[in-house]
Amino acid sequence: MRLKGEPHELALGMAIGIFAGMMPIVPFQTALAVSIALFFKTSKITAALGTWVSNPLNWYFLYRYSYKLGALILGIREQKAVFASIIAAMRAGEESMVVVGKILGAGSTFVTAFLLGGFVMGIVFATPAYFIFLKVFRSIRTWRRSRKERKNWRVPDQ
Asked: How far apart are CA 152 and CA 149, in angstroms?
């Protein structure tokens, strides 16, 4: 509610954050989102907030479907055992760099499938998110203005 900036800048920042949040690079999502936001000169704060779309409650689904989608696009067979070991490490509360090490250790085809799927999911979710948040931020701006006008409006003395 207190974020300053144009609705377009705030919404674009949020969409960038959601895009980065869909990428299976957990310890680096915020850094990626803020870097992209800097490049596009948009809200770094909403970009960082948007990455919260990825959280421990939905990592399994995000990682699973980004890998499945990437494998489907590349036309490769899924490596279910490797994926299961990565998810087991995440559930066990392993440090994020241990999980990254397991992903990188799975080989370049696995990593490519993971990243490609995350990229596609990021585009798919970030695009409508931009328009949704643009409407939200415009509504907030309208609400702020009307509240300010009501505050400044005074009944003349009779």
From this structure: 5
Residue with tokens 């400044």: 152
Query: pLDDT digits over 28-56, tens only?
Result: 899 999 999 999 999 999 999 999 998 88
The DSSP string of 7-62 is: HHHHHHHHHHHHHHHHSS-GGGHHHHHHHHHHHHT--HHHHHHHGGGS-TTTHHHH
Query: Does the predicted model carry a pTM greater than 0.70?
Result: yes
Tokens 């989608």 appear where? 69
CA R_g for the chain: 20
**CA nearest to 45, candidates 11, 21, 76, 95:** 11
Structure tokens at 111: 């990593």
Structure tokens at 47: 């970009």
**Residue 49 contacts residue 14 (beta carbons within 8 Å):** yes
